[in-house]
Structures are given as C-alpha cells and as structure tokens.
C-alpha cells in the first residue's frame, strides 16, 4: 500500500500516526516531491469509483489561487487529470492506494 502525504500537513501527520499505531504497513510517498503521474491518477480514480472532483483538495491555497471552484465544472476528465498531475498540492490528502483508494483521513476505519 502507498501512503501519499505532504509532511507539513497536520492532517497527514495525524493519518500517518494512526497508520503507525495500527501497525499498518505502507510505502511513504511525498505527494509534492513525487507527484502522481497522469496515468497513476487515471488508474486510481477509475479504481476508486469516485468522481474525479473528489480528488481535488478544495481547501488548498493553489485550488483557490487558480479559481478552480468555477473552472472545474467545464473541464474534461483529461484536463482535470492534467491539472492534478501538475501539482501535488492540488490533490486531496492524505491518499492511500492499495486494495482500496482512500481520500482524506476520516475514512481510515474502513481499512481495519
């Protein structure tokens, strides 16, 4: 399982602590330094069954700077993948990729 996080994100730090406390093994990946590729994201979105818009970190500074709240509505699936793969800070975190795709920390209980 891959745990994608941003080390300066307080929610990511809490998520990592939760994983460690539950002895869940993972490969750690910095979502900014090693941003997911377009193909990785395509696979994860399709595997998750979630709308691609759920993969955007709507509370991120970058999301607001780019004015994506309105722009995203008219973008194609591929345009959204291009955008997400351009900057890890646009991706909702933390992100777990394994048998399940889990976005955000609140859903971790699904793993145990």
Please provide a written account of the structure.
Helix 2 packs across helix 5. This protein has 112 residues and is an alpha+beta fold. It is globular and about 40 Å long. The model has no long low-confidence stretch (mean pLDDT 92). Strands 2-1-3-4 form a 4-stranded mixed β-sheet, sandwiched between helices. It is built from 5 helices and 4 strands. The chain has helices spanning 10-21, 38-48, 61-65, 68-71, 77-86; strands at 2-5, 27-30, 95-97, 101-103. The chain starts with a strand and ends in a 9-residue tail after the last strand. Strand 3 (95-97) and strand 4 (101-103) form a beta hairpin.
**Poorly predicted regions:** none
- Rounded Rg: 14 Å
Describe the global form: globular
* Structural category: alpha+beta
Helical fraction equals: 25-40%
- Please count the helical segments: 5
Q: What's the total number of strands? A: 4
The biggest beta sheet is recorded as: 4 strands, mixed
> Which strand order spans the largest sheet, edge to edge or round the barrel?
2-1-3-4
Average pLDDT level: 92
Distance between the termini: 14 Å
Strand content: 5-15%
The helix-strand sequence is: EHEHHHHEE
Helix-strand blueprint:
Layout: E1 2-5, H1 10-21, E2 27-30, H2 38-48, H3 61-65, H4 68-71, H5 77-86, E3 95-97, E4 101-103
Parallel strand pairs: 1-2
Antiparallel strand pairs: 1-3, 3-4
Helix pairs in contact: 2-5
Key terms for this structure?
112 residues; Tscrpt_reg_Spx/MgsR; 4-stranded mixed beta sheet; globular; Arsenate_reductase-like; Thioredoxin-like_sf; single chain; alpha+beta; Arsenate reductase family protein
